[in-house]
């Protein structure tokens, strides 16, 4: 699984302040830490960036690439002008996160992506908001990928994001996302995929095991990459194929070979069984269910 480090984010107090103060030190330190642990991309999330967004994105891209110029950056903001400012100074191929499945957004953004020969995240958030199931996701994907192709962007430069929802709010959506991921190559051969992995655990005290378990399931379904917390060392180990025992346990839950946490030894693997059963909808999510 390819990993996109999510931590250079304006909502993080230290990073948000560094953006505001144009202080390169915390930003470059975090970029170097992400390189050291082996992330494949570094996401730069400015949020809305309504005021001074273009100048800020240009500065952050240059600041990061002063110390890390061999890992592509993901330009992440709702400010289209800021995205273009970042693309104009980025060395190599950037990844634009994201182009929504809304005509008023993609008709503006797709020519820009093509102009700079960037890769793009096709976010399946349509005119009606969150798609209800895998079929609505497929319909939005067809529309957005076709429009991208018409703009000169081939499938191989498109990362489709089916949107992950929190397990404690919209639990059934998690299976719809898995089902769509399995369909993607039939819909858009050669396209890649990505997701905001930590969305699954928003608002829960069980962030890491839920993120780790769902990443395993998504990879099995064909997911190419995930936007992750680079400080979660176990998650990175799983993504790099270093914890086959955990992956095998989650797969056995998916295949019905393990139906109860008591069937495996050790609290660590039992927690993965609990998380997997919740994601699969075999039990309703509750904080107490996850507790050992």
* CATH class value: Alpha Beta
Structure classification? alpha/beta
Rounded to the nearest angstrom, the distance between the terminal CA atoms is 28 Å
What's the CATH topology label?
TIM Barrel
What is shown here, in short?
With 292 residues, the chain is an alpha/beta fold. The chain has twelve helices and eight strands. 49% of the residues lie in helices and 14% in strands.
What would your notes on this structure say?
This protein is an alpha/beta fold. The protein has a single domain, classed as Dihydropteroate synthase-like (TIM Barrel, Alpha-Beta Barrel), CATH 3.20.20.20. Helices cover 49% and strands 14% of the residues. The chain contains 12 helices and 8 strands. The protein has helices at residues 13-21, 24-37, 53-67, 80-89, 103-115, 134-150, 173-187, 207-221, 233-239, 244-254, 267-279, 287-290; strands at residues 2-9, 41-47, 73-77, 95-100, 119-123, 158-161, 192-193, 225-228. Strands 7-6-5-4-3-2-1-8 form an 8-stranded parallel sheet. Helix 8 runs parallel beside helix 9 (233-239). The radius of gyration is 19 Å and the shape is globular. The model has no long low-confidence stretch (mean pLDDT 97).
